[in-house]
Amino acid sequence: MASAPSNDLWIAALTLSIVFLTILWYKLNKEESRLPPGPRGLPIVGFLPFLRTNLHHQLTELSQQYGPIYKFWLGGKLCVVLNSPSLAKEVVRDQDSVFANRDPPIAGLVATYGGLDIGFSPYGSYWRDMRKLFVREMLSNRNLEACYSLRRHEVRKTIRNVHTKIGSLTDIGELAFVTEMNVIMSMIFGSNFVEKMEKHKKDGTEFRELVIKYLQILGKPNISDFFPMLARFDLQGIQKDAEALLKSVESILDPAINEHLKMLSDRREGEIQGNEKKDFIQILLELMEQKDIGVSLDLVKIKAILVDIVIGGTDSTITTVEWVMTELLNNPEKMSKVQKELKHVVGMNNVVEESHLPELHYLDAVLKETLRLHPALPLLLPKRPSQSAIVGGYTIPEGTKVFLNVYAIHRDPQVWESPLEFQPERFLSRSTNLDYAGNNMKYLPFGSGRRICAGLPLAEKMVMFMLASLLHSFNWKLPEGEKVDLSEGFGLVIKKSERLFAIPTPRLPNFDQYQ
């Protein structure tokens, strides 16, 4: 008889457990039913084992099976993919503040000192103040104009370099990489510092190699990003590699910053004049001393911004130049149109200046069409909603990794006529309203909304200036019997799978203009 109460307690506990589990199952099932449809994965790992290297192709194919919005799990991470202009509008316009946070990889956080940069920092007052400072003080029209001589110097140096390779195979991507890196390094460190590095032929090359390694690490899938509980173990060693690379980058940044700090100190003491052209480090260090700029700057935040500029400003620009040249070599009649426009706007006895760029409408259309077919970031940078939201009638829980599949939108036959054909002419109509700012949801090469690429004005100038100079100064052709390779490689930025080599021949009657 004494066991009766314990039996009753056991039965009561069992009943309560069943009721609780039933309610929990019902709740989870109900929440699951509100999520978008999508492919089933395996227990624990989800869809991870089925991912292919050409992820943007795979996600576009899945949209044809599951519709414009679908979900899948990567380990413990819920992912949602949006594949239409109307869904993009819901995220980057209608609910932009909810989806304003990035979902950064661990390697990205390491590279930016825990997200102290502009690209990965959480949406809020810090991000707003940092972006405002970056755009106003560093990428203003006034500052970009002040840095024009640096860009012109590097582009003309590249043209002179190509002239030494007349009739020989030339690596277009390497040309673009060296030019862009030298421009960015000059704008960050100052032309004197870069010339000093080139003289020793060490740090410039070393810095470029570090950038390449950084981009490779950022594009490498990291198991710790999908299973946060395993992050402490760093199973693939990606975090360790990123930390080592950051120290190597600091070994170049720190001496430059210290040299600039000494210059500022000497200026205060009246030993040097203060009317020289300012580079980015100098601008940031001067802002660090001010108390009324809206954000408290320190050396770590300054280095985070500088890493942002280098990482964000190189690979996408270089890749775009290579893809434009690839498409023009594959469509020689389009290249002829570009060069005819250059002859009319610039003249065969003149060299390209940035002042010519606004008149190069067909080259601008070629660039836009290239970015439609080959967006540098086909899935952009993943977003993470700060709260649960409704998109396309489905629930997107807080913390979900949201991909905006720009690649699918740009090639959607319901949105674009003959979407797989290279037709720059589609961008010449004034009625299209297709610009780089993402104002039209069917064309989003750099995203849209408040987290659109902050370096867009500089990137647009550099790509156009580089392309116009290469195409005005030289005719380009492939080696005899070779065909253009349009296949894509794998990485954070979608490069060509094979590097582009082409043969330049002189086009201008007087090359001395570039001396």
The SSE string, one letter per element, is HHEEHEHHHHEHHHHHHHHHEEEEHHEE
Number of helices: 18
Number of domains in the coordinates?
1
Could you name the ranges where pLDDT drops below 50 across 5 or more consecutive residues? none
Largest sheet data: 3 strands, mixed
Task: Summarize model confidence as the mean pLDDT.
Answer: 89
Helix share of residues? 40-55%
| First-to-last CA distance | 107 Å
- Spatial strand arrangement across the major sheet: 1-2-8
Would you tell me the structural class of the helices and strands? mainly alpha
GO molecular function, one term: metal ion binding
Organism: Solanum stoloniferum
Transmembrane segments: 9-26
Pfam family, one: p450
Report on this model:
- Its cofactor is heme.
- The chain has 515 residues and is mainly alpha-helical.
- The protein has one domain (34-514): Orthogonal Bundle (Cytochrome p450), CATH 1.10.630.
- 51% of the residues lie in helices and 7% in strands.
- It is built from 18 helices and 10 strands.
- It has helices spanning 4-34, 55-66, 85-94, 106-111, 125-138, 141-146, 148-163, 172-189, 191-200, 203-218, 223-226, 238-268, 280-288, 299-330, 332-345, 361-373, 406-410, 456-473, and strands spanning 69-74, 77-82, 101-102, 170-171, 383-384, 389-391, 394-396, 401-404, 474-477, 501-506.
- The strands form 4 sheets. A 3-stranded mixed sheet has the order 1-2-8, covered by helices on one side. Strands 4-10-9 form a 3-stranded antiparallel sheet. The protein has a two-stranded antiparallel ribbon with strand order 3-5.
- The chain starts with a helix and ends in a 9-residue tail after the last strand.
- 38% of the residues are buried.
